[in-house]
Amino acid sequence: DAGVTQSPTHLIKTRGQHVTLRCSPISGHKSVSWYQQVLGQGPQFIFQYYEKEERGRGNFPDRFSARQFPNYSSELNVNALLLGDSALYLCASGGNTGELFFGEGSRLTVL
Amino acid sequence: GESVGLHLPTLSVQEGDNSIINCAYSNSASDYFIWYKQESGKGPQFIIDIRSNMDKRQGQRVTVLLNKTVKHLSLQIAATQPGDSAVYFCAENLGDYKLSFGAGTTVTVRA
User: Closest chain A residue to B97 measured between Cα atoms?
Assistant: First the structure.
């Protein structure tokens, strides 16, 4: 069975640019959550989507947005990139048990 | 801010010895905790969880202890192996697929 898949795995952007990160949850899972992990820290909650609706949002600026598609895949968008947005962006898939399964992440570097 | 925090950022353990990783939490109403292992370049991987109606839970070579009186939990790894080298996070499950992570403890296993 495929786990949570994220793309791209690595990317480099410059300040002010926009980035789109993608996530496919485990088959049958309807929940997708996004986390930001800055180097040396624990993951920080950004968004949670369930059945295409936003169910939770962390303390992140409006430059961060996300959406979930009918097939339950999800995109995280970040506008007007700042140096501080450099991080590993993790997607987590959730099923009926409430357990979260994480993907390998997308490592974003902002120059 | 974080609802959970780890006591030590690093832990060096001799192969074969037992490891103990500690974590404190601030909210006495917290009732569900999860330990994750994150290897270099990978996403967090579920190890074991515990709910507040339990004091102890055991898995394969791992034990989690929960002391609600002092708001403290620990992860014990028996007979630590080189493959146990990773960053370990305690996380509070806030419900709705939302997790609050601590900063992480880096465990290094010495041969």
Answer: A98
